[in-house]
Amino acid sequence: MANENQQDNEKYVTLTDDEGNESLYEVLFTFHSDEYSKDYILFTPAGTDEISAEDPDQEVEIQAFSFDPEAGDSETDSDLFPIEDEKEWNMVAEVLNTFVDDDSLRTEED
């Protein structure tokens, strides 16, 4: 998680772990919380949508971080910060659950 790079259409981020291994992730969505005065980004490993289509009951890994939208050219070009507070995690999970449960919040691609 040490590094993040912008990919072709800004729907993807590449995370580099402490050992230099890179993994590609697809951005689900970003949002701002007035309560915490932070912006958040949620993403899942690239290609997960194909796995979900084949096996809808399979659990999908979703990662969430806060980020500073002013720090880079876009949310996929800024530093990511871990969410360490349990109340903050609960708020992010609630937003995610709303996104998952409400079809009107998804794009036509979903």
TrEMBL record:
Name of the protein described by the UniProt record: UPF0473 protein DLJ48_00175
Domain of life: Bacteria
Any Pfam family: DUF1292
Family: Belongs to the UPF0473 family.
